[in-house]
Amino acid sequence: MPVRSDLPDRFDLVFRIKVDLAWEYTLILRHLPSGANIRRLDVRGTHRDRTGEDYICRTHKHRWSEARGNKDVYEPTDIRHEATVPLDASLTALDEEYRRVLLDFMGECNITVGDGYNWVSPPAPPPTLPLEGLEEYP
Fold first, then answer.
1. What CA dihedral angle connects 87, 47, 119 and 117, to 10 degrees?
2. Are 43 and 26 in contact (CB under 8 A)?
């Protein structure tokens, strides 16, 4: 979604949820002209940091700077969520957490919620199609 700013540049707020791993998601404040991720939050994310540190199912933030790009990574204390994967990790069960984490992330980025804000739950994933009539080949 676009972010309104007093600056002449444009920014977007991106919220990515993996359908098959609903408990692992990312929020990004992106500077559109450069494509730089100014702030990024990986909730229970797994990847290797550019400095070589492994993040295995750990919530962490990336902070962008001109000198280091998005290499500054730290574990936040201001995100209201469970650190471990919840027992029920469906899109529906995590809906309240998504809303809280979005508001926490926006607060850190100094984004205020306008009067027109209305939380919309992520849509349920489409059902998987049956694979009828396919033959296995040796």
1. 150
2. yes
As to burial, measured by CB atoms within 10 angstroms (0-12 exposed, 13-18 middle, 19+ buried), residue 52 is exposed
Contact (CB, 8 A) for 29 and 108: no
The token pair that represents 119 in the structure block: 């939380």
Give the model's pLDDT for residue 19: 80
Q: Per the structure block, which two tokens stand in for 75?
A: 């574990």
**In angstroms, rounded to a whole number, what is the distance separating the alpha carbons of residues 119 and 21?**
21
Q: How far apart are CA 101 and CA 41, in angstroms?
A: 9
Strand order in the sheet with 69-74: 2-3, 11-18, 21-31, 36-48, 54-65, 69-74
Please tell me the distance from the alpha carbon of residue 72 to that of residue 93, in angstroms, as a whole number: 31
Contact 105, 41 (CB under 8 A): yes
Best CA proximity match to 95, nearest among 115, 81, 78, 116 = 81
pLDDT digits (tens, 9 = 90+) for 32-76: 999 889 899 999 987 776 667 777 788 988 877 666 666 677 788
pLDDT for the residue numbered 129 = 61
